[in-house]
Design brief:
Layout: E1 2-6, E2 13-15, H1 33-37, E3 49-63, E4 66-79, E5 89-95, E6 102-115, E7 118-123, E8 129-133, E9 138-144, E10 153-162, E11 167-172, E12 179-189, E13 192-199, E14 206-224, E15 231-252, E16 270-278, E17 286-287, H2 292-301, H3 316-324, H4 329-343, E18 345-346, H5 358-364, E19 366-367, H6 369-382, E20 386-392, E21 412-419, E22 422-426, E23 446-449, E24 457-459, E25 466-476, E26 482-492, H7 493-505, H8 507-516, E27 521-531, E28 536-545, E29 549-552, E30 555-558, E31 580-581, E32 586-595, E33 600-604, E34 609-612, E35 618-627, E36 630-639, E37 643-644, H9 649-663, E38 667-671
Parallel strand pairs: 3-12, 18-19, 25-32
Antiparallel strand pairs: 1-14, 2-14, 3-4, 4-10, 5-9, 6-7, 6-10, 8-9, 11-16, 12-15, 13-16, 14-15, 16-17, 20-21, 20-23, 21-22, 23-24, 25-26, 26-28, 27-28, 29-30, 30-38, 31-37, 32-36, 33-38, 34-35, 35-36
Length: 673
């Protein structure tokens, strides 16, 4: 009798018989005269540069080191003008963390210029290549192509090996400059099942799936039973299927930034692959891509997350003082927040796991976002409050995809506290915030609550946005000049930004900025008052302006909102590719009392109006009435909803167009005989 033991995947020796896909559309080193003579890009003559071809392949193969991801890329770029010279600089990222081995090798590059009718090439040297740390788990390989000038063509090629199978590097078919040809091929053996995650609006011209065959040679060993003993070895060959996908995008337009658009990299047409399952021969399927229930459990059981939220004794004396000074739960939460944000400094690092742990953070008075906010949660729980963490992505890190729980898309954690049945968001990394407001870097649509009983999505929308209320008492003189007093109160994020400017640049600089905001108006007697508790900022100043009105014979024309010039509508374009992201709600209220000059009468006055966005997403009110020689103007502009999709843009644009049209209307005065 023999007992047979098969040496499974970790010991397989593959002899690949893969059939590769179509021939690459670019050959490194073969730049044409036509490419060098190109003066502009067809269809986008103002483009600073263009990707002529970007070709990449990613395959999972077996080597002497085991399974590895092998990638190759060749890219060619045309530089048209001085603005395009930045495309000579490139950065390639690779993991450098525990148990992950990634390397970039074989980097080669050339710059081609046309001189006296001949192609002259300049090789990328080692002096122009260097490495630096990008984060705790990533390094960056940076290089600058040599002797790049207007008209140059640059190209580079490199290989990358990786054993990080969970997420395949994202491939971008679209850039902020036009792309003539982008092609990407991905192949993996049947043992690995990947889920494609796509984004962007640009059309892909070719999307084809294919299969190849490969063979694996491996050795099995068997042990003889009985008295003879001994071990026998047998060689086997197993065929396996290779699944591949080929994508081609041609003449992809540049994705250009628009007013109030999120980070462009969120919407560049691209694809990446998330590992879903692994199944070796004769073994059950191993699930890799978890669901939110599994992820929630993982966080709660983690030493660097769930364990950090438990109440501790090391802060009990400070917490006792805080509780003694707090009359109710609102005050208690705010005082815990103030204690942590004023005494512990954020080190600028982001992540959803604690780096130091809350005890060390408390003692050393510094830590990352998770250290600080998990400490806040711990103290809130110790004080008898209900508090939970919310994992999220900062605005600079990108948008999260609620469909796929891909953890690399998250990089931050804040706190959610329940006060009298209402949940509020808190981030103790930044001091001086009103209770319920989180830093603007955190206003990124949604985060995920991690807790025992109610893990769910949380809207990252503050109770108050960017607000200002102004009061103006002014008089129009016979010569058309206007003099008066303005008082404006900033609150919410408008006040937070003002406070930051004052703390950073000083009060004098802040007052100078107020004056500089008015080009044709004399500003004097500027005063600024700070309300530290409510984080409100109140500005007051006198003004005299000679540029607000126009006279024509007996007629005088003036904008009753006293704007020096019409503000520009940010949504003039009929079509828009990107969504609109205001970040936070906007509310602007103006109250103006305007006295008309002696001897003048009102000839024409703008009509009052009330506009509203669908589903109570915003409104605009404009009321004007005459009381004797005075005009009273009240204007309210409010946008409550902060994010508008591509499909919602038309009605948002229509709303803004009507608002700006009304704000541009003139008051007409006529001089009496």
């Amino acid at each position: 009798m023999r007992a047979t033991v098969f040496i499974i995947a970790s010991c397989l020796v593959f002899i690949s018989t893969q059939l590769f896909a179509d021939k690459a559309p670019i050959k490194f080193g073969k730049v044409s005269m036509e490419e060098l003579q190109m003066e502009s890009y067809p269809g986008d003559p103002d483009a600073e540069a263009a990707i002529l071809c970007d070709y990449g392949e990613t395959r999972i193969i077996y080597t002497s080191a085991g399974f590895q991801i092998m990638s190759e890329r060749t890219c060619r770029v045309k530089i048209f003008n001085k603005e395009g010279l930045d495309w000579a600089d490139w950065t390639l990222y690779f993991y450098d963390g525990d148990n992950i081995d990634e390397n970039i090798n074989g980097l080669k590059g050339y710059t081609y210029n046309l001189e006296n009718g001949k192609i002259v090439e300049e090789k990328l040297s080692k002096d122009n290549i260097y490495e630096e740390e990008s984060s705790e788990t990533q390094r960056a390989l940076k290089f600058t192509m040599p002797k790049v000038k207007e008209g140059s063509v640059i190209e580079f090629t490199y290989k990358k090996t990786s054993d990080y199978f969970t997420l395949i590097d994202k491939w971008y078919f679209q850039r902020t400059i036009p792309v003539k040809h982008s092609e990407y091929i991905f192949e993996s053996p049947e043992y690995f099942r990947y889920m494609p995650v796509e984004q962007g609006y640009a059309r892909l011209d070719i999307r084809e799936n294919f299969t190849n065959t490969g063979s694996a040679s491996f050795t099995s060993k068997s042990r003889n039973s009985g008295y003879t003993g001994g071990t026998n070895y047998s060689n086997h060959t197993v065929k396996y299927t290779i699944y591949g996908t080929r994508f081609v995008a041609k003449d992809v337009p540049a994705l250009k930034s628009e007013k109030y658009s999120p980070k462009l990299f969120n919407f560049l047409t691209s694809i990446e692959y998330q590992l879903s399952t692994v199944q070796w021969p004769q073994e059950p399927i191993k699930k890799i891509l978890s669901d939110w229930g599994e992820i929630n459990k993982m966080f709660l059981e983690s030493e660097n997350f769930g364990n950090q939220m438990k109440p501790r004794n090391f802060y009990k004396d400070d917490l006792a003082k805080i509780k003694l000074a707090s009359q109710n739960d609102v005050a208690l939460v705010y005082n815990i927040y103030r204690f942590i944000s004023n005494n512990i400094e954020w080190d600028g690092k982001t992540g959803f796991y604690a780096d130091n742990g809350i005890r060390k953070t408390y003692m050393d008075k510094t830590g990352n976002d998770a250290d600080i906010n998990l400490l806040f949660i711990s103290m809130c729980r110790a004080a008898g409050l209900t508090a939970n963490p919310v994992i999220m992505s900062t605005r600079s890190h990108g948008l999260v995809n609620p469909i796929y729980p891909i953890m690399s898309k998250y990089n931050y954690v804040i706190a959610e506290v329940n006060i009298n049945g209402t949940n509020i968001l808190v981030d103790a990394t930044q001091s001086g915030l009103p209770l319920g407001l989180i830093p603007e870097r955190c206003l990124n649509q949604m985060g995920r609550r991690i807790c025992e009983t109610n893990s769910n999505w949380v809207a990252l929308v503050p109770y108050k946005g960017r607000e200002s209320v102004s009061f103006c008492q002014a008089k129009i003189e016979d010569d058309g000049s206007v003099a008066g007093l303005i008082q404006e109160k900033l609150s919410g994020y408008a006040a937070i930004d003002a406070q930051f400017e004052i703390e950073t640049d000083g009060m004098d600089k802040f007052k100078e900025k107020i004056i500089e905001n008015y080009t044709n108006t004399e500003i004097k007697n500027v005063s600024v008052e700070l309300d530290k508790d409510k984080v409100d900022v109140v500005e007051k100043f006198d003004f005299v302006s000679k540029g607000l009105s126009t006279k024509a014979g007996k007629m005088m024309y003036i904008n009753p909102l006293l704007e020096e010039e019409d503000s520009e509508n940010p949504f003039k374009n009929e079509k828009r590719e990107l969504p609109v992201d205001f970040g936070s709600p906007i509310k602007i209220t103006r109250n103006i009392t305007l006295t008309i000059p002696e001897g003048y009468a009102v000839e024409e006055i703008p009509e009052s109006i009330h506009l509203a966005l669908p589903e109570n997403a915003g409104e605009f009110r404009y009321q004007i009435r005459q009381l004797g020689n005075n005009l009273q103007i009240v204007s309210l502009f409010e946008v409550k909803k902060t994010f508008y999709s591509h499909d919602e843009y038309p009605y948002l644009r229509n709303f803004f167009s009507m608002v700006f049209e009304k704000q541009g209307e003139q008051l007409v005065l006529k001089k009496q005989n």
